[in-house]
Design goal:
- It is built from three helices and 26 strands.
- By secondary structure, the chain is mostly beta strands.
- The chain has two domains: about 230 residues, no CATH class; about 90 residues, Immunoglobulins (Immunoglobulin-like, Sandwich), CATH 2.60.40.
- The longest helix has 21 residues.
Length: about 375
Amino acid sequence: METRGHPRLSHRLSLCVLAALAALALCSPVAADPVSYARRSAAGASLHVLDVDLNDPKVVVASAVAARGIGRTESFAGMVARLGPVAAVNGTYFGKRSFRPVGDIVIDGKLVYFGGTGTAVAFAADGVDFIRLPKSRHVDWSDHDAALSGGPLLVWEGFAKPMPGGEGFGDPSVFARASPRTAVAVTADNHLLLVTTIRGTSLGVLAAALRQLGAVYAVNLDGGASAAMWYRGRTIQRPKNRLTNILCVYLKPEPVRNEPLRPPRGLDWRGGHPPRPTLSFAPGELRVSVRLPRRWQGRESVLVEADGPLPEGWAVRVRLDEVPIAISGALPLEVSLDLTSLHEFKHSLRISVLDDEGEAVGGEERIFRVEKRGGTG
């Protein structure tokens, strides 16, 4: 005999199931948006603030220039439509007639323009750096994927200290008491802050505002009629000028790194930052280059690259004092060196290429001494 459920009981059960599902949804964690926008007030300044969580492994920050290259301009709307970032702000200053940038610009690890002025925000695989640059001198950008040099410096090691002197800026509009501003900053927990002012603001007030927002490092970018901000299809601040360069934020579909970021750093390169010393050798038709540490102390790294892939079955081996510390069948290969436990006498680092039978077909060796902290070698 067929039996039917009581209609009121079925209704109550349905309500209970829906209530349980709703409660589960409320309790389930919702992933925070790694790129967010808000209007903020700090130190008397009204600001548009993009908060970019650099800890999210899908976040990538990159510099970009106008479609036709250095010395050309493009509308801000055209640049973001072409490049497709989730967020963007204007970049560094540029000449009113030449349209050439004032500061260094690094894209995809390559210096695309040398400006030799100011303080740079630079993005490496393991974290972000704010770098005080030497005036009119080239530096080595090989450790950074992207960089953009602006100025003046606004916050350094948590202290608000706008420093217009000595950075190479001569345009009086940079130091105007009340001017539209754009700045880039980073907090101790690796949140990048991209900021434009809603009203004209002095450098001192902007520096104090960024410090209140938690910035440990910050630098001023171009502003005035070039101040610009874009966020998820919306122009937050529309520039009056066509631009030559911008700073973009992307959200990649897959993580771009596996390791957590180190804390942000402030680096002073005003005394120079020459290229890392290299070794090179040619096993067969392959040319291998090895970038060595600038200083043999603390924790450093060695980068092994080649002008083509290793043949099938071949490998690169790295030995420190005859002890193998890395072996890989693929290049490039970056090897971390912990020199903290080594004594201050001679050591050897040898890089070899092994064929498919494990025989060395080429290699180079560097003899070095571990330097004392504060040494200049």
